[in-house]
Each structure stands twice: as C-alpha cells, then as structure tokens.
From TrEMBL:
InterPro entries assigned to the protein according to its UniProt record, in alphabetical order: FA_desaturase_dom, Fatty_acid_desaturase
Keyword set, alphabetical order: Membrane, Transmembrane, Transmembrane helix
Domain Fatty acid desaturase: 54-301
Pfam families membership: FA_desaturase
Claim: Transmembrane is one of the keywords in the record: yes
Species for this entry: Halobacillus seohaensis
Name of this chain's protein: Fatty acid desaturase family protein
Entry superkingdom: Bacteria
Membrane spanning stretches: 30-49, 55-76, 144-167, 188-206, 212-230
Coiled coil: none
Length: 350
C-alpha cells in the first residue's frame, strides 16, 4: 500500500524546525498590492482618456493583465489570513485584490480554502480535480473530443487557459451558492455581481474598442498567467484517497524575480502544508521538506511542467495513471512512472 500521510502529519514534523513568528500575518505584503493597484489605475486612465492608436494600447494591456494576475496571487494570500487577521478587513482586501478576476471572497474561501485544500486531488470532493475515465465515459461529447489526436486536444486545452479561471469561477458560483445559508447568499451574489457590473459599466463608458484593451485582453492575459500555475499545481499528480501534499502537489521553479512579483505562488507543495503561513517563508519550508523527504518531493521547472501537460492526457484511469482513451495509451503520473525528461506511454492489455 502506498505510504500516504495527511498534510497535518507533515506539517507537525516540519513546524519544529521553523523559527518563531512564521505564522504571524505579514501586512507588508500589501505594499505589493498597492503597486499593482497603482499600475492598474494608471493603465485604465491612459487607455480611457487618451486617443492613441490602438496598437499603442496593446503593451499596456499586457501590463494590466500581468497586474490583474499579481493582484489575484495576493488575494489568494490575503484570503488565507496570512496578511491580515481581522475577518472584515481580510474579506475587504481580498475582494479588492480579486476584483479584476471578478471572484468574491466568500465564494473563494468556500471553494478554495475549504473544499480544495481539505480534499486535494480527491476525485469526488476536490472541485479542481480532473475526473476519471469512469466518470467522463458517460458523456457523448467526451467520446467525440477524444477521437481527436492528442496534439489537437493539447492545443485547444492550452488555448482555453486564457478563459479557464474565469469560467471555473462562474462554475463554482453556480455549484456552491446554494450551500451558503440564506442570509449569506445575497452577500455572495453581490460579491460576484459588483466586479462584473463595474467592468461592463466601463464598456459603456469608454466604448468597445478601448474596453477590449482596458479589460478583455488583460483578463485573457491574467487567466493565462494564473492558469499557468494552477494547471501545473496538481494535474500531473495522482488522485489520492489521503490528502498527502507530497503526493498530490507539485512545486514549480521560476526565476527569483518572478517569485517576488507573484508572492512565491510557485511553492505549491509548501502552500498545501502550511496554507496559514505567509508565502514569504515557503523557501525555508521547501528546504526542510527536501531534507526530510527528498524522494517524495515533486519539483520541476515551470516550462518543463507545461511541456509535460502538453504531452499527456487529462483523464485518470486508475487514479495513478492518465489515459488517452481513443488509443488505450497509459501515461504515468508523478511518483508513478511519469518521467518529465522522457514522456512515454504503455498500451493497455485490454
């Protein structure tokens, strides 16, 4: 039987090596948010108030999109309570940080903090886990899609990263709104509707052409940046019956300056061990994990992880393997035969 342990089991053993104060909130992280907010406001004003040729707006759109994503990474940290502790201030700042991505703080904490973190890579209970062949085989569209060659599916899957976070957020709203108490539901509705209302209002204020550069293109860029991380967090890992972050999570490596502007979001295994710890301390957590369990820890360059995603299908066969149903090709997952340096498959016996 596979040697799996809960995140609490690991956390207990790593925590004793941590210096005092690592679980205290770090409000200085808000300076990064202020920088992003200043960039976003400046970019929106330039696009809205100037009459430049649209091509001059394009680089501003990319900067806005990168800032939208940066705000989302900070919002993720804020809503885990690692920046400020007061619930009303946490939710207010989280709402502001997630405003560009139009995701409300109450929905995010329900979907991400509770369901995803508690049930990571559980086929039935993790809202972010990819499904198994058994579940998907009931869909007629599934059979049609998987008749396409793998590289065609991979192309469209990667193209869809530009909308996946937004689409999944709306899906999670529909999935969880009824789980909130009746008195809480209006707040969840308002937190979802207000950002969208503001962005649609901006459309009527500045017109279609400028709106494309002020919001639509930046939203696509932000989705790509955010989903570049999210798509590698768990999708190469197996489904597991025990929430073991060393088995079900992947840490990717990026240049240090990227880690700096993205609040160490790349340290995903570390985050699942200590979601209540500021990501400022995750490099230290990584050091001790690699000292204690080097053979179980999964880490690779972001570029290599994305290439591995491109070359493997996204359907689980037996929780540990990925399957291309149209050809009966089985690919390993991390810890179960997947070699990012040489991705290969085996044929099913039947």
């Amino acid at each position: 039987m596979e040697d799996l342990h809960s995140y609490g089991w690991y956390a207990k053993r790593v925590a004793k090596y941590m210096p005092k104060g690592v679980f205290k909130p770090v409000p200085k992280r808000l300076w990064g948010g202020l920088a992003y907010l200043s960039i976003i406001i400046s970019g929106l004003l330039i696009i809205s108030l100037t009459e430049w040729h649209p091509l001059f707006f394009l680089p501003i759109s990319f900067i806005l999109g990168a800032s939208f994503a940066g705000m989302g990474f900070l919002g993720h940290e804020i809503l885990h309570g690692t920046v400020v502790k007061k619930p009303w201030l946490r939710d207010l700042l989280g709402a502001i940080a997630f405003w560009p991505l139009s995701t409300g703080p109450k929905l995010w904490r329900k979907w991400h903090n509770l369901n995803h973190h508690i049930h990571t890579q559980h086929e039935d209970n993790d809202p972010d886990a990819w499904p198994s062949l058994e579940r998907l085989s009931q869909s007629k569209m599934f059979h049609w899609i998987y008749k396409l060659p793998l590289f065609v599916r991979a192309f469209f899957a990667f193209a869809s990263l530009a909308v996946q976070f937004t689409a999944h957020s709306l899906k999670m709203f529909c999935a969880y709104i009824k789980d909130f108490k009746p008195k809480q539901q209006p707040k969840v509705w308002i937190q979802m509707a207000l950002p969208w209302a503001s962005w649609i209002g901006l459309l009527f204020l500045i017109g279609w052409e400028k709106w494309l550069f002020a919001f639509f293109i930046p939203l696509l860029v932000a989705n790509l940046v955010v989903m570049g991380y999210i798509s590698t967090n768990h999708r190469l890992n197996p489904l597991v019956p025990v929430n073991d972050p060393l088995a079900n999570s992947l840490t990717v490596t990026v240049p240090k300056w990227v880690d700096y502007i993205h609040f160490n979001f790349s340290h995903h295994t570390e985050h699942h061990l200590f979601p209540g710890m500021s990501s400022k301390h995750y490099p230290l957590v990584k050091y001790y994990i690699k000292q204690l369990w080097p053979e179980k820890y999964h880490e690779m360059a972001m570029s290599k992880a994305l290439i591995a995603l491109w070359k493997t299908p996204r359907v689980y066969f037996d929780n540990r393997e990925l399957i291309d149903p149209s050809h009966g090709h089985l690919y390993g997952s991390l810890g179960h035969g997947l070699n990012p340096e040489n991705i290969d498959y085996k044929k099913m016996n039947n």
